[in-house]
Specification:
homotetramer; mainly alpha; 192 residues; Arc Repressor Mutant, subunit A; 0% strand; DNA-binding; Tetracycline Repressor, domain 2
Amino acid sequence: MREYQKDKKEAIINASLKLFTERGFDNTPTSMISQEAGVATGTLFRYYPTKEDLINSTYVIAKDRLARAMTVGLSKEKTLEDKVRLIWGNTIRWGLQNPQELLFLEQFLSSPYITRITEEEAMKKFAFMSDLIEEGVTAGKLRDIHRGLIFEILFSANRAVIRKISTHGLERQTDELIDGSFELVWSGLSRS
Amino acid sequence: MREYQKDKKEAIINASLKLFTERGFDNTPTSMISQEAGVATGTLFRYYPTKEDLINSTYVIAKDRLARAMTVGLSKEKTLEDKVRLIWGNTIRWGLQNPQELLFLEQFLSSPYITRITEEEAMKKFAFMSDLIEEGVTAGKLRDIHRGLIFEILFSANRAVIRKISTHGLERQTDELIDGSFELVWSGLSRS
Amino acid sequence: MREYQKDKKEAIINASLKLFTERGFDNTPTSMISQEAGVATGTLFRYYPTKEDLINSTYVIAKDRLARAMTVGLSKEKTLEDKVRLIWGNTIRWGLQNPQELLFLEQFLSSPYITRITEEEAMKKFAFMSDLIEEGVTAGKLRDIHRGLIFEILFSANRAVIRKISTHGLERQTDELIDGSFELVWSGLSRS
Amino acid sequence: MREYQKDKKEAIINASLKLFTERGFDNTPTSMISQEAGVATGTLFRYYPTKEDLINSTYVIAKDRLARAMTVGLSKEKTLEDKVRLIWGNTIRWGLQNPQELLFLEQFLSSPYITRITEEEAMKKFAFMSDLIEEGVTAGKLRDIHRGLIFEILFSANRAVIRKISTHGLERQTDELIDGSFELVWSGLSRS
DNA sequence: AATGAATGAGCATTCATTCAT
DNA sequence: GATGAATGAATGCTCATTCAT
């Protein structure tokens, strides 16, 4: 309906992503999704037998897109700091360009759905982050505190930057803010 | 029902707080709230004409409780660093003791409801934080970057610590983690 | 809607009885029942939380009405034969006057619902029949075969008479057919 | 799917018979039937344009099987009583061995579908019974009451016996119960 | 003010049927 | 003929909200 979709399954996921982020899971009827996707109500249930299945599938897709965006150009970087800096910037830029997908992912942090989805599984896609952190701690470059905590702080601070930029319309200063916030976070995380 | 309530209005808010945090907004019927509060269904709507009104009122209450908890003992501290450190620890301890209320507040960060509630109003209660940050920047103790960004990073890192502790059952090491994470954050924020 | 109903619960049962017998359980939407009863869709579910609950309640009511109709005037009769003859006639006349209720009851014999309803419980209302049969066998008036079988044969033959009369429009000869069929069945059941 | 089927049409009927009896008409989706039959959903509708058509066809087949089973060995019997006795026993044994098919047939007695199927047509297959009854009445061996009534009583008593045996697990006493119930019914029907 | 029965729009899901391949 | 993806009307049930008592 919106645009030609290769197949209906993809159209449904795209519509879900859009509507779930705009309206929240529970405020988005499946009928609205199928309409937005340009398919019949029954078609949605052929591919996703349950609304919950649809939510979970959408989550996995979104998480995957984020993980891909974060690592663009990663292999070119040499030092640990440069790698983290690249990821830092990639993530912020992706978040600014895909605010809905990011918002959608955040819904899971505080929703009952989070328990139903294997945290483990979702985290596999971010193994590259865990690896980097482990490498940094081992090499004595990062503070020797709970690895998961470093991970969480990085992520949450990153989201904070995105939120601040988009909420206050600071897109013009994006590059400065990326750099400034990275220095701040990096100097906090790295061994003094 | 649960305990003797001064008046029905309070009973309703308490029931809301409990149920919303346990089950989420959309999964909590107003009928369940009125039952938990020990009042008739109609009574709830006398005080809160709309479910949305109830959600917003509950939000304000919870936010207020958080703000109070954060500032306990604040007047005793002298230096900026000590004040922020106190707030940092207060927040984490409160979050660990009131996980549901915290979760409830976080629901708003990514829910469509956030747009409906005056961000301004909610933020007034945290004026003490803004003041501290302003003071720190002015005095040259904190990095001179966007004030709101400092605020957001502080908050999000704080939540990250809480989440990590409760998710991984690290309550025993709470004090160390509070201290360690504060050093990390503070060294990031402060002027080198 | 149809007529003034003392209370909604009764109106719903009456509508159910009518529609279930006319259309079958599965071909009768709850919305149609509530409409026929002149209540809102939600009201039906206040009284009967599930369609199945409604079906079962309707069944119990109908069974009860039948049991009452069967025993009208029973205390006046003296001999076993007269008692059974009275019940025989009562049942046929009630069946002819309430064809839908009878049909409704028969639906249970061949429906999956029968397993869900305590056969025992339903049978309690017909204890007077079991007692009569037991009395007859003990007194040597009835053949000494499986009591339940006598019960079943009586019932099914009775229904056969009703069905035949109403299917073939033999209402004019009702009295003769009642008598004739009773003689037939009685001479079969009684000890020669 | 189950076993090799000569043609799809037969496979569909067999699947219908099985599933309709196990689950009832309305609780059996056509998709389930086509799956059980090992054909595509569309194929079913090539042979039976409507679910109702399929139900009716299945009914006719089942009725035919019953009629055949009832008359096995009938030509060997000489007297009227022996013929009826044979049919009596044949029917009970078939019913015990094919409880689901019998249940399926009974569904029609009290279902709205009965009006849609030509009673006449279904009855043609039981002409042998009508003939026997007519013969008996004419010869003065059976009571001179409404022929159809005799037919109905015979059938319903017969089903009552089957039901009683299978409900109470009396299979061991099948032969006695067949004989006992036949004596009972026959002495009722025959001219004293 | 308080009550809770009543309301009816709204929702997730099912399924008989169609039709392009 | 055969297939099975697609359709969309229909259904059981929920729940925010109203209002007579």
